[in-house]
Design a protein that fits this description.
The chain contains 4 helices and 11 strands. By secondary structure, it is mainly beta. It folds into 2 domains: about 130 residues, Thiol Ester Dehydrase, Chain A (Roll); about 90 residues, Hotdog Thioesterase (Thiol Ester Dehydrase, Chain A), CATH 3.10.129. The radius of gyration is 18 Å and the shape is globular. Helices cover about 15% and strands about 40% of the residues. Helix 1 packs antiparallel against helix 3.
Length: about 240
C-alpha cells in the first residue's frame, strides 16, 4: 500500500477551475508505478521478463470533483487479485482539507509478450508475495453498454506523446478523447463524476474516431462512447460518462 500527496499544478486546471481529468489519471498512474515497483512489478520491471501489464477495465467514482481550491490531492492505492484473472488496483483520494473526493478501480491483465496470451496471476512466479486479498468486498465488475445510435463524432490522431512504455496509446488519451466529445454546454457546467471503461484492443499510432451517444438519465447527463479505427471500424474501447 502506498500513499502520496500531490500538489495540484497550475497547468492542470481547466477554465472553470476544475482539475483536468487527464491530470487526475496521471496522478493515479504515478502512484501505481511507485507501489508496483516495491514488488518489482512495474511495467518497466516486468518487461525485463517479456511480460507486461495491460489495462482492461477502469472505474472512477467521484463524490466531489477536485478543484483548484483543494490545493492538494492525497491518494492511497493498493493492489490485490481479482478472480485470479486480474490484478485489481484500488484508489481513494482526499483533498487538502481531508475531505473524501472519491475512489477508483483498475483491472489489469498480465500478458506474456512471447505468446501474446494473458497469464493467470496465480500461475506467475512474478506474483509471489503479491497475492494477498485486501478488500473484504470486491467491487462490481465493469460492463459498459454497447453504443447503438451515435449522435456525435470526433476524429483524433494518435501523437507520439500519446504513447506509453508499451508503445501503445496511454489510457489517459482514451478518456480525453471520449470526454471531449460531449457538447460544450455539458462540460462547461457539469463535471464527469462517474466514468467507466472497457479496453478491448491497444491503439497503435493511427487515426481514431470517437462516437458518442447520450442516454436517458434521471439525474445529470449520461453518455456512451466508442473509440474505433477510422477505416476498418475496429473497436478499441467502450466508455461511459455520467456528468453532474
Amino acid at each position: 500500500m502506498t500513499e502520496i500527496e500531490n500538489q495540484i499544478p497550475f497547468s492542470g486546471i481547466d477554465p472553470k477551475g476544475r482539475l483536468k481529468f487527464g491530470v487526475l489519471l496521471e496522478m493515479f498512474q504515478e502512484i501505481a508505478d511507485i507501489d508496483a515497483s516495491k514488488y518489482n512489478l512495474s511495467v518497466r520491471q516486468t518487461l525485463e521478463h517479456n511480460v507486461t501489464w495491460v489495462l482492461r477495465k477502469y472505474r472512477i467514482d467521484l463524490q466531489k470533483y477536485p478543484v483548484k481550491e483543494d490545493g492538494t490531492i492525497r491518494i492511497k492505492t493498493y493492489a490485490e487479485p481479482y478472480r485470479n484473472l486480474y490484478s485489481l488496483r484500488s484508489y481513494k483520494l482526499w483533498n487538502g482539507a481531508g475531505d473524501l473526493l472519491g475512489s477508483a478501480c483498475t483491472w489489469w491483465v498480465l500478458l506474456d509478450l512471447k505468446r501474446g496470451r494473458p497469464i493467470r496471476i496465480d500461475k506467475s512466479e512474478l506474483m509471489t508475495g503479491f497475492m494477498e486479498r485486501v478488500s473484504k468486498v470486491l467491487p462490481e465488475d465493469v460492463k459498459v453498454p454497447e453504443l447503438t445510435d451515435p449522435q456525435l463524432e470526433e476524429m483524433w490522431k494518435v501523437r507520439w506523446q500519446d504513447l506509453d512504455v508499451n508503445d501503445h496509446t496511454n489510457h489517459a488519451a482514451f478518456f480525453s478523447w471520449a470526454l471531449d466529445t460531449v457538447p460544450d454546454k455539458v462540460s462547461e457546467v457539469l463535471s464527469p463524476v462517474l466514468v467507466e471503461s472497457e479496453f478491448t484492443h491497444p491503439i497503435p499510432r493511427t487515426r481514431v474516431r470517437c462516437l458518442t451517444q447520450e442516454m436517458p438519465c434521471s439525474e445529470g447527463r449520461y453518455f456512451l462512447h466508442s473509440l474505433r479505427h477510422i477505416e476498418d471500424d475496429t473497436e478499441y474501447a467502450r466508455l461511459s460518462s455520467l456528468w453532474k
